Each structure stands twice: as C-alpha cells, then as structure tokens.
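agent> call fold_tool(seq_1)
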Amino acid sequence: MKKYLFLILLIIGWEANQAQNFSDSVRISLVTGSPGKDLYAQFGHSAIRVQDFKYNQDLVFNYGTFDFDTPNFYWKFVRGKLEYILSVGATSRMIPYYEREGRSLTEQEIQLDSAQQQRVLRILSFNYQPENRGYLYDFFFDNCATRIRDVFENELAPNFTYLSSDTVSITFGSCLIFILLSHLG
C-alpha cells in the first residue's frame, strides 16, 4: 500500500510541477465532451487544455475529478455533498477515454494575448495547489463549468464577453454552458 501511495504522490507531484512551468508559447482552449450514459456524465463535461509548444506539454485542467469509491457516492452527488477536485493530466489520456465511451470532444481555442495567458496559467496553477483543489459539487452554482467560467471571468474582467443569448440557446446547469464564450476584447 505504501508503494502504491508513493507512486500516486510521485505522479501528482510530477503533474503539479509540470502544471506550473509554462513558456510564452502557449495555446489555451476549452474542451467539451458530449453527455455520457452515467448519471454524473449526463450533462457532458468541460475542461481547460493547455498546450505549451516550447516545453512540449499538452495538459488538461479538469475540475470534474472525484473518487468513485466515496461512500454513498450518488447520494452525495445529488445532494451537492460530493467532493470534487481539480486534476491535471495529459490530454493523451483523456482522448482515448472519450473514444471508448463513444462520446465526442469539441475544442475551442480561446483567443488570449500573452499577458492574459499568463494570468490564466497563474490561476490554474494556484487552483491546483493541494489546499485549493477541492470543492463541494453543486449542479447549478459550483461545478466543472462554473469553475472554468470563474477562471476566465475573474482573471480577464472586464474584457470577458459571452455571445448574446439571442444568438445561442442556453440550458442552465449544463456543463456545456461554457461554449457561450465568444471572444475576449
């Protein structure tokens, strides 16, 4: 058990280190997965992808990670008492998972200048620190989509805009809500 725990901590440590070292040659995008069959996947899922071309990194910042072995998993999930965490992993591990599930992935590059990219990367790294990773999932107000929205709204205000609701049909509570991001002024 100690060897297994050490290996997990080693992997997490490596990912945390990688998540905090970025160059000025970065592409940030929103990756949105279509809905899945399981209850927790019914609304789809979104994550932030960071590609660093200088350091050859391709990472996904995923605010939708949880422990399936949590006692009373579904009961806690529906009551908003299930702890979720921000995880960071290789994009190359995420894509095959969605393919096996028969779920599609859509990627939208977010147009940011260098200063905006650095602010977003700084908050992602801050959120990934062990004391900041966890939160209690709430269907409408604190979930994988709202956490992503908050990264951009909080770090890039007042130059953060959405498409008009006249242009796009909005479904409240869906993890796909973040597709509304159109551009940064």
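agent> call fold_tool(seq_2)
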Amino acid sequence: MTDADPTRASVRPASEAWTIARVLKWAADDFRKRNNPSPRLDAELLLSHALGADRIRLVLDSERELSPVELGRYRELIQRRRSGEPIAYILGRREFYGLSFAVDRRALVPRPDTEPLVEVALERTRARSMHGAALDLCTGSGCVAVSFAKQRPTWRVTATDVAVETAELAWENARRLGVVFTLDVLVGDLFAPVAGRRFDLITANPPYIPSGEIAGLDVDVRDFEPRLALDGGADGLDLVRTVIASASSFLTPGGVLAVEIGHDQGPRTLELFEHAGFRDVALRRDYGSRDRVVSGLGPKTP
C-alpha cells in the first residue's frame, strides 16, 4: 500500500480527510486496477458492512469523515477481497430467489444461474402444488430447497448433502428463513439417506466442472469455494449420470427430475435423461441464455 492508501492514513489536513465519498472512490479505483469485475459495487458493499449501514446511508453521509477505527475495519475487508475471497463470504450472506442466505466456505456461493432450477421445479409441479414431497440433492447452502419450501409451504421437503458441515449450514438457513417445520436436512451421499422413500420432485445441483478445468477457474472460486462441490470428474458429468440413472427408483409415478448442468452440457444431458426413460424432457437456459437446467417426467409406473 502507498501513502495514498486511506487504510493507512495518519493525520491529514481537513481538505484531505478520508470521507465516505473519497474512500469509496479510492477503493473502487484500487479494485479496478486489480481487474475486479464489480469494483464500485464491492467497494460500497464492504464499506456498508464495515459501518453497519446500508448503501443509501453512504450516499446521504458521503461527506462524513471516517474514524481510524472505521478505516481499520474497512482495511481488513479490502485486504480479504484483494486476496480473491468472494464478496459473499466476506459479508456472510448472499441473496438468492429474493431471500438472504447465510454463506461461508462450507458451501458454494448461491448464484443467479441456479435460480432457474427453482423456477423449473415450481413450474413442473404446478398441477400438484397443494401437496407433495420434494428431495434436493447436493443441497449446499440449502438455497434451492429453502426457496422451494418457501413457495410450497404445504409440501414436505428433504435436502441431503454428503458433508456434515455443509448440511449444518443448510439447516441454519432453514431455521433463519422459517421452514424448519416443512424441511429436513440429512447427511449422506445423494440418495443414501432416503433409501426406500419416493418423491414427487427431485432437484439436484451436483458438481459439474470437469476436473481438468478446476485450475483455470477464477481465483475466488478455485481457491475459496469447496472443491467437492465443483469437481464433476473427467467430463463434469460423473454425479449427473448417477443422479439421472438412480432417480426413477425414488420418484413417484410421473414425478419430476430437474438437474442443473454446465453451459455446454445440455445436449449430452438430454441424451442421458432420454436413455434413462424420462418423458417430456426439456432444457431451460439461465438469465444469460446458457444451457442450465434439464428436467423430465419419470415413468408413469414405479
């Protein structure tokens, strides 16, 4: 850091005081030089977090000078972001499907790309919206399971994850967001915790990044998010194949399976669904018009 770094500022003339407006400009410029994709937004989010204030307050109090303690808190957050740590992990939260989820390094950061998985689940079960049972595999933070449960309060939702600590995070979100009476979180590999049960809907966001591509991911993903939730094997479809091949044994007659995939895995996943006997197989794109969710109806008889 240089002498112009406000996080190491000493006594300065009033004309050089580190006001909210000035420190935000400095931080945004610093992030921009480091190729941060959202420099101004990150600068504002981190300062809001450091001050315990919303972003509107930053505008209203733009000429207020920050105290040394406040600058110190901001410095720590900036250093974490400089290292590549995801902004969601620093803030400890991320919005998904209109809800605020607690997030940390126990699970992937919820992304807008995953919201179409919730949309498909709701659309394809609309005919039975008043009653049903849903299973969410590889639940992570619980963002899909909790979001679905909020929209379908009369359904029973079960979420599974292979990692104990990740399942604990999902349960924390279920409790915070008020769905503990309709959602269960179980620990185990895919379908193992629900042996013998059947569901009207199965959703899954399994790891689907090819192993050879992990090293080339952005640093905030590669070095901070759990590899277990990213690595999908040689072609990225190891767990996708397992889910599709096994799902019929856990679906009620005509039940729905919906799986999130990588942007270039649509054609191959459609083939896997059809080969497994699914009907009315469909592909949904995400908000960036990339292939993202494949879904289908299971056999009419068990």
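agent> summarizing second result for user.
The first strand starts at residue 93 and ends at 96. Residues 68-82 form the longest helix (15 residues).
agent> awaiting next instruction.
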